[in-house]
TrEMBL record:
It comes from Gymnopilus junonius (Spectacular rustgill mushroom). This is F-box domain-containing protein. It comes from the Eukaryota.
């Protein structure tokens, strides 16, 4: 298959890979797939322009020598992309060496200690002195990712302590005017992650930027300069901080379409970031601010900007009754909504009123983070999913996210109308499910063809005992609470995992008959599970361990039996699903 791709198409794919700023997997590795791919890769020299990851934790001379050898193999006109990590040396020559090629920099990712910023400034100044015009410094730089980490070297800590730069034998300024990348006429994309405790003034070409991202745990790094410059081309802005600051400059960004702003431990005495912005072109907003009323600030932003939001993600400590309704009334074009714990009074606004209209009529996707199960919320979602309202779209895709597997299963039982099983039997089944899951994990990576050892044999013996207890409890399939017992305990999931391993993949299957026994258990449970799933027209399906998604069979969606019985794998990474609590620092 890999050799059947036409040469021209594969070449185009390689060109696109060469333009990707992601440096985790260097694009040049595609030439290792086969001889055909290697021949095509030779026609795309940009694939080799991504240098191997450069670690400043390694010894100095070999690092520089290897870097020089790699660059020497490239044509002198090839632009360079590189990633520098692990800044454990206060005075490491690798950056000074890379600066010699600064005119060829294209995509750059640097991880530095704060004390080295002055050294980088001075090294860049030495380069500038060689040219009459500053424009010759970084003429091809398009993407910059800068991560400033805590000091780890003794020299760096001493420089910070005594305000003296040991690297350059000069006073060490507590507040640095960071200007190393100030002259970069093609720079369009900047990401900053700042872990320092000193207020910096970062000099960057903010005017032409299209995208700016800043994560800061303590002091701001460049956000004030971004707002002061009011870049007319800025389209995507992310500012995520541990805490807010007392005052932000006011700014109007006429082209900004996407804003992601999160303050994790704010104070009500600080100014809201949204209060300082006017964004007439804003379409997508993600907002978290634990120190301010984000609803009132967002309402004021929309009123002030006259923007038409199509996607809104917000997380508030407490949503007061009527606040969400007030906000969505100002966003009639909203198509995607993500929020937490909708008050019952606001749920009612989603139903149509006498003239057939309702709140957010264009809404297509809704994600609600629920601290506890709410039958009223499920009823509202199901009613909007009917698509029979005159002024609504014909399909609403819904996801309910819960803190733990326990709350998720409780909500599932509530939505599907299961009767809750007794605690004693349920606790026993949960214990058996957890024990079986943990023992199966010990089988991971084992092959039945490997020689049997005492430890593996002991694990299989314990699994045999657990299955025997489960088989004793198999009579639950004859009760009216079958689905509640099985799904609330999750007992069917590890049993199903054993079946999926197949007879040839299960250790000691010939001795203990694991494959046939687990199949017998599922054959006993599945009829009750199937009849329960088919009893309702709509089905809430488990995804991962914390989400319920609603699917309408009449919408044309394919419902596999395995999805109905065992749920689906989680399709959204935890960092995106739980964005409101996943701090990037």
């Amino acid at each position: 298959m890999i050799t059947s791709i036409p040469h021209e198409l594969l070449q185009l794919i390689f060109w696109l890979m060469a333009e990707d700023p992601c440096l985790e997997i260097p694009p040049r590795t595609v030439r290792l797939v086969c001889h055909f791919w290697r021949d095509v890769a030779r026609s795309v020299p940009e694939l080799s322009s991504t240098l191997p990851t450069i670690s400043m934790a390694k010894s100095q001379t070999p690092t520089v020598s290897a870097l020089e050898a790699h660059i020497d193999q490239l044509p002198p006109t090839t632009l360079l992309s590189f990633r520098v990590v692990e800044p454990r040396y206060y005075d490491h020559p690798v950056l000074n060496h890379l600066i010699k090629y600064s005119e060829r920099w294209k995509h750059v990712s640097l991880e530095l200690q704060h004390s080295y910023l002055s050294g980088l400034n001075n090294a860049m100044d030495q380069l500038y002195d060689k040219h009459i015009h500053y424009q010759l410094s970084l003429p091809n730089l398009q993407f910059l990712k800068l991560k400033i980490v805590k000091e780890s070297s003794i020299e760096g800590k001493l420089a910070r302590l005594f305000d003296y730069d040991l690297l350059n034998m000069r006073p060490y300024l507590s507040t640095r005017f960071f200007k190393a990348f100030y002259v970069a006429p093609q720079l369009r994309d900047v990401e900053i992650e700042y872990h320092g405790s000193i207020w910096n003034v970062a000099w960057l070409p903010y005017g032409p930027l299209r995208r700016y991202v800043e994560y800061t745990k303590t002091k701001p790094f460049g956000i004030h300069q971004v707002m002061n410059y009011k870049g007319e081309f800025l389209e995507d802005l992310t500012y995520i901080a541990q805490k807010s600051v007392h005052l932000y400059p006011t700014a109007t960004f006429h082209r900004l379409k996407s804003l992601d702003h999160r303050i994790y431990s704010g104070s009500t005495h600080f100014q809201s970031f949204l209060e300082c912005l006017t964004l007439p072109a804003l379409e997508r907003l993600r907002i978290l601010d634990n120190g301010n009323n984000i609803i009132s600030a967002t309402v004021a932003l929309i009123d002030r900007s006259g923007c038409n939001l199509t996607k809104l993600s917000l997380y508030s400590k407490v949503l007061e009754a009527g606040e969400l309704t007030q906000l969505l009334e100002r966003a009639p074009l909203i198509m995607e909504l993500e929020c937490n714990d909708i008050p019952v009074s606001d749920m009612k606004a989603f139903y149509p009123i006498s003239n057939g209209r309702c709140l957010a009529p264009r809404l297509k996707n809704i994600v609600v983070h629920c601290s506890s199960p709410e039958r009223e919320l499920a009823t509202m979602i199901e009613s909007r999913s009917d698509g029979n309202y005159q002024h609504t779209v014909d399909q609403l895709n819904s996801r309910l996210v819960f803190p733990t597997f326990k709350e998720c299963m409780t909500a599932w039982a509530l939505f599907e109308g299961w009767s809750m099983p007794s605690d004693v039997k349920l606790r026993k089944l949960k214990m058996l499910a957890g024990s079986l899951e943990s023992k199966i994990a010990l089988w991971s990576g084992k092959s039945p063809s490997e020689p049997n050892n005492w430890k593996e044999s002991k694990v299989s013996s314990k699994i045999d005992a657990i299955l025997a207890e489960i088989e004793d409890e198999a009579k639950i399939a004859c009760t009216s609470n079958t689905c509640g017992y099985i799904k609330m305990s999750g007992i069917h999931i590890p049993v199903y995992k054993i079946i999926c391993m197949g007879p040839t993949g299960i250790p000691h299957d010939a001795k203990y008959q694991f494959s046939s026994r687990t199949k017998n258990l599922l054959n006993l449970w599945i009829p009750s599970l199937q009849s329960d799933s088919q009893a309702r027209q709509r089905r809430w399906i488990l995804e991962g361990k914390s989400s319920l998604i609603q699917i309408k069979p009449e919408s044309g969606a394919t419902l596999e039996e395995e999805d109905l019985l065992f749920g689906r794998p989680q399709t959204i990474p935890d960092a995106d699903l739980f964005w409101w609590k996943c701090r990037p620092f």
